Amino acid sequence: MNNFWQRTITGFLVVTAIIVGLWWHPLAYMTIFASVVLLGMYEFIRMIEGLNTKVRLFWAIAIGLFVYFSSFFVFYAHIHPRWLIIMVPLVGGVFVSELYFKNKNSLLNIATTLIVPLYVALPFAFLHHLAFWGGDYSYKILLGFFLMIWGNDSGAYLVGSLIGRKKLFPSISPAKSWEGAIGGLIFTFGIAAFNFYIIDALSLVDWMVIGALVSVLGTYGDLIESMLKRSVNIKDSGSMLPGHGGILDRFDAVFFSAPAVSCYLLFC
User: What angle do the packed helices 3-24 and 140-163 form, to 10 degrees?
Assistant: First the structure.
């Protein structure tokens, strides 16, 4: 099976799973993205193993899952936000436990352990705000958000493949072009208009602003992940998704766009 069909079939299955999970039930949505967070942290830890450092697996996974699940249940079960204080001993545990490992690279070990949940789990925790925007769970804004991410990726790929000439960031991602980035932005604005007329939930202006955030920051998320992979001399973050690479490769557009969209809805 060639790469095109692998990419198409895998993409279809991933998209179907996300849409069904969003529509079916909030716990289904939570479970799907909990799996993404867990597998994404595992991939990121494997990437970091290429450096002269040691990620403390227990603490990285514990902090990441706590960030993701606690923020979900603040919205879903209305638990008091004071329970988030548990984050303090979890983070403190990273520092204290390092005393007992007697490793010369303690600073790097602590830094790399903490960056795993910060880079992977925290952005997905912001998705909960989109899911429960307005109080009750609704799949609408989340669905619109992911449609724009997929539209930006598809538009950038198609336009870049056809007419891409001027490199966007050749030292990091030689295949990406300015023409592709602009094509992705135009596709995203088209999806934003679709979201307004079909999904509703937000005004046209809101969807357009979110579309711009998704396109620009999604592209940055892709470039930054490429930069991180180059720093450890790997092409893909993993091989869990045939034709796409790893979990991080497929969801890198979420890492910076989700927090930005959440902040936009919160403050604007």
Answer: 160
pTM score of the predicted model: 0.93
For the segment 12-62, what is each residue's pLDDT rounded down to a tens digit? 888 899 999 999 999 999 999 999 999 999 999 999 987 888 999 999 999
For 37, 87, 88, 94, 173, the CA distances from 63, given in Å and listed in that order, are 11, 7, 10, 10, 31
Length of the chain (residues): 268
Decide if 45 contacts 34 (C-beta within 8 A): no
User: 81, 74 in Cβ contact below 8 A?
Assistant: yes
d(CA 31, CA 41): 15
